[in-house]
Amino acid sequence: MFWESIIIALEGLKANKLRSVLTMLGIIIGVGAVIAMVSIGMGVRQKVQTSIAGLGSNLLIITPGATSPTGVRLAAGSNNSLTVQDAQAIAREIPGVSLVAPFVSRQYQVIYGNKNWTTSIQGTTPEFLTVRNFTVDSGTFFSGQDNDTRARVAVLGRTVADNLFGDISPIGQTIRINKAPFRVIGVLGAKGQSAGGADQDDMVLIPLTTAQERVLGITFLHSISVQAVSADVINQVQDEIVELLRSRHRLGAKPDDFTVRNLAAILATAEETTRTITLLLGNIAAISLVVGGIGIMNIMLVSVTERTREIGIRKALGATYYNILLQFLIEAVVIGVTGGLIGIGLGVGSSYAISGIAGWNTVVSFSSILLAFGFSVMVGLFFGLYPARKAALLDPIEALRYE
Amino acid sequence: MRTSIILENITKLYQMGDSEVRALDGVSLTISDGEFTAIMGPSGSGKTTLMNIIGCLDRPTSGSYRLDGQEVAALTDDQLAVTRNRKIGFVFQNFNLLARMTAHHNVALPLIYTGIDKKTRHDKASRALAMVGLANRMFHRPNELSGGQRQRVAIARALVNEPTIILADEPTGNLDSRSGEEIMNIFHALNRQGRTIILVTHEPDIAACARRIITVRDGKIVSDERKER
Q: With an 8 Å Cβ cutoff, is A306 touching chain B?
């Protein structure tokens, strides 16, 4: 009986092909939109996740200067409260810290031959590579010994290497930073833009001591990057760093003269934001699915009225309430399911088209397909139920008399 | 002879706006198996209402209708549907075929609701169409058939499930006289096979074919005549 009802319903849809297709279009567009929108949202989310993770995992960044909300403040990083000794103390005294990379930087013009390039000169220690997730593409990175001897060696970011050297290998060449000569010993692997849009490859790395004493002429640090051993301990490590630095700086009741930023927390916030974006896009698309459902209901109601006589005939010939209910309900669900399947094709196709043409990152997830499809079946059922019930409840005599 | 249709003091009221219309007013009637009965009367006399009640399309407001010993007023809508499906075949004035289906498909329709498998359905529908002389036009749609042929399809549909009772409401009303005669011949043939035929008509010529003529006026039976062969 169930199969018969499906066949009867399909015949009913076939009898009104154009109308069935137009009704289906509402569901096709709805499902397609849900899948495409969610895939865009997921794509944004994935991109933000990878770019934040690319900064280094389990990372804490300590900068001098407070984040107190009131009073006269110096710009973050302009304060001279952080020292190399602070960095060493963090590495030594706090359990759960795996690596510490102290850090100074300033913009300088870098000269090679007749070319020049203004970039950020960053002084740091060999831990930098691991902490900030960089790789050395060619040559080597400077060693702890280079740091101890204030060696004039430099490692170039990809952008700097491309701009100063072009096709020539920079390894072993001498560049001038603020008039002082430096030997290039390595080039970093390209990393691309940061989440904020800054070029992470536009920099020159030199040993920390060299930078402090020979280039910048300062004794303090601009920041300290700390890598915790795992994400589980990162909040505890953050608290202990605050405690340690407060006691080292003898702050007493005074507010912090440094700021500890937790990238895990930033990542969580960014994820939360992108999840909201995905949800928002998905919901807007879902509205079109509901509109499609109302389209189904509208057409089914028209169809029931138009086929009143048919219903009367079927009832006179012995169709029961459930026979008629099933016939119209299945018609509605078939519209929903067929529309849903085509919509999945459309949604997956358009999300690939979006990533291909607009260059956006899209992620088609199985769960969003399943959700959109399930929803389209539910829409068919829900919006088909009322018209189908109306049909099934028709009085056979009234229905037969209907012109 | 077995008497399967027993109506006792049947009343049917309709609500028309504010006023109440008494379509049937205390009708008592018995029809034996194998009878060929015509119900006559002018329009508005209540003959169609009477047929609807006999055909289990409608329930009486009061009174008792027993079909094969079963009190019809006590049945639910779905039980009425099953009764119509198994025991009664309908033939309508305007044929009431489904236009988008072939004649064969139309005839097989009641069998779907009986729950008969596809192959048996196909065979039974073919046999019923052959019986009304349409073996060569089985897969035509109603709009490709003449009025007489359409009505024969409708008759084939009425008898496909081998009901004991065939109810025909003005079956020749939309047909020319020659086609009408053909249809009446089919009814006679069916009656000879032992089926109960109940014919609703306002044409005396058609009614004259029947062996029993019941005349209804203002919801009451005014005459009930039997002709001997």
A: no
